[in-house]
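Tutorial, part two.
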Amino acid sequence: MGQSFTTTSTTQLTMNKSPLAIIVPMLNEAPQLPELLTHLRQWQDRGCEIILVDGGSSDASTDLARAAGFTVIAAPQGRARQMNTGAKVARGDILLFLHADTRLPQEADVLVKAAVAGGNRIWGRFDVRLDGNHWTLPIVAWFMNQRSRLTGIATGDQAMFVRATDFKAMGGFADLPLMEDIELSTRLCRLSAPTCLSQKVATSARRWLENGVWQTIWLMWQLRWAFWRGTPAQILAERYR
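Running the prediction step on this input gives:
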């Protein structure tokens, strides 16, 4: 891993240890940022540490987030690199990685803390709901959740969480442009099975709707199969764009 990072406002970094750190990678999120920050505010008010990690936005994302009183740090562009940078400065006992277009359910902080409290489970994820009106989306989400339960593999859309000490001990996310969530899940499964929370995060279905639901399903399966067969993530990222 080993990326360097800079803080945009060191005084914003809380000195109090929080049980849960929510790390959000972002890049040019200005249009949806007000709604995202409103969502994050409730968790900040509940004592969670919120870290926004910017990958070089060319819009007003960082200014908007700082003006709203949130911690923003800079990192090399790439979701894995940004999340690793956030994890390095996080003070929470548990790290939760939240995509900018995903929203947590009520009591998510309580659920996450309970999921890794005691026992042998060190990580987990939520069930997912795709935010859209197309009739196929609930079916797609159901299959995503069931597949995850059967395989133990989670995706970033499911708001993965892990104990900070274990995440850091295993080196964090691999420096991949795609499939970093699949790769991390595979390594985490060697340490413990995930806690699969039935409460749902809501995530954007924009890609599914714009590119076609069935076409997207087919592409996702092709990419995962190719990754499992050893195709470099850099090549798969080009196909995903």
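The chain has one domain: 6-204. In part three we will examine how such features are distributed along the chain.
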